[in-house]
Amino acid sequence: MRTIYYGGSVYTGSLPLAEAFAVEDGRFIFAGTNREARALAEKGGETVDLNGRFVCAGFNDSHMHLLNYGYALQVADLSSNTGSLAQVLETMRAFLREKRLAPGQWVRGRGWNHDYFTDEPRFPTRLDLDQVSTEHPVCIVRACGHTCVVNTKALEMIGVTADTPQPEGGCFELGEDGKPNGVFRENGMDLVYGKLPRPGTADLKAMLLDAQAHLNSYGVTSCQTDDFTAFANVDWHDIMEAYRQLEAEGKMTVRMAQQAQLTTVKDLEAFLEEGYNTGWGDEWVKVGPLKILGDGSLGARSAYLSRDYADKPGCRGIPIYTQQQFDDLIGCANRSGMQVAVHAIGDGILDRVLSAYKKALAENPRADHRHGVVHCQITRPDQLTDFAALGLHAYIQPIFLDYDIHMVEQRVGPELASTSYAFRTLMDSGVWTSSGTDCPVELPRALACIQCAVTRCTLKDRMGPYLPNEGLTVRQAIDSYTIHSAHATFEEKVKGRIAPGYLADFVVLGESPFEADPYTIGDIPVLATYVGGNCVYQARD
């Protein structure tokens, strides 16, 4: 079935804008003028008048957690209307009343940020969550996903006491009384997550379906997702099986590339021995890079810096891996032909990552490895130079500026802050730079992310701009969400553009980002989303 769309404002990946395009058998077969479209229509096919609307390739979120987002949609939402600790506790109490959970069942929530608390700007503790319930285990996860807090009942159920050994690459905090205060950071969270109810395949599929539908509503047609460690008690084979079943059932509406988080060389070698590697799979479900979690988050002060936090002397954050562990993991992947993507927010952990990449590529040179760094937030000029020299890919999250502007200089000091979130510098130096939201850390709002990339300001109050010279043009920001994201998965010849032969994944918007006030790009409505030429989302009139 051929469908010809005409009368639009179409960004094909090149300028000037086109007026029309055509889709057949799930791929674009033409992009050009209305006159050319009319000539094509004479040969047969359905025609659709775009009525001047803007169309571009579907958005490709280059780093997120699709399964974790589906899980987050099932728990209490602490990301909105929780501007105080008191509101967080009341939201959790209301959630417990609504769900009518029996004593002993977990009460969970996600999305709080203590920096926004107007009453007590601090982390909650077990004593706070005891006000939600003393009969139910309660667990709330910070917006960044790098810290969780549980109540006393939960501590009793998971068996963590002051005598429990501290985990490598993480910790749980002790209060003034010498007992655990309920706060768990980084790998320490596994002590909690390993005791949560284990979801089955049907549960995993339901979460993925829910998450995909939400992504489609934001114009997202592809995602690069880190799912393997979403649940401490779920094996990655079960997660891949859930995807396989959804694809076999024809229920995939987002194309998925797995950023496979495997935490040891032994696990990585077993993965490779089973035949998996970068590029395994098809247009719907495939394997991308080995994902490594290098450090924590800036907001939780667990991102690992090269110097003390400016607002917490004596604290540099939490490095998840030693230099040797990085060398071993990255070296194994590189010599096996597997791509690597490492979460690095602090410049201290980035030093280790860059060192490991240099070592691996010196031992086993590869011309087109497309190894990369996820987040690329706190950086120094020497590191940015190494980025380009090593040919690394930058997986950036411009939407993080919406929150981080409020505290980045306070956290790292003016010197480090002045060379951080250097997205334009990276792009101008020839680095392939793709955008994403790290959802559910942020909602998968592609257009809001594009707005932050362009304005370098917060979304609501327009605070900033933060280092305005690092702002992207509208075209660069769109490309970072389409063409550059496709390059991250070696798919730049099959997706990310509206051009003949490319997958017919596209989004119809209510206004052109090229013509809109840059500060309102995030408010542009998504009218329709198409994947493989099929409409997977239609806005209500």
Number of helices: 19
Radius of gyration: 23 Å
Percentage of residues assigned to helices: 25-40%
Oligomer: single chain
β-strand percent reads: 15-25%
- The count of β-strands is 23
Low-pLDDT segments, ≥5 res? none
Mean pLDDT across all amino acids: 96
Structural class: alpha/beta
Shape: globular
What is the CA-CA span between the terminal residues?
27 Å
Largest sheet: 8 strands, parallel
Strands across the major sheet, in which order? 7-14-15-16-17-18-19-20
What does this structure look like?
- This protein has about 550 residues and is α/β, with parallel strands linked by helices.
- Helices cover about 30% and strands about 20% of the residues.
- It has 19 helices and 23 strands.
- Strands 7-14-15-16-17-18-19-20 form an eight-stranded parallel beta sheet. A six-stranded mixed beta sheet has the order 8-9-10-11-13-12.
- Helix 12 links the parallel strand 18 and strand 19 (about 395).
- Helix 2 (about 65-70) crosses helix 7 (about 200-215), helix 7 (about 200-215) crosses helix 8 (about 235-250) and helix 17 (about 445-455) runs antiparallel to helix 18.
- The chain starts with a strand and ends with a strand.
- About 55% of the residues are buried.
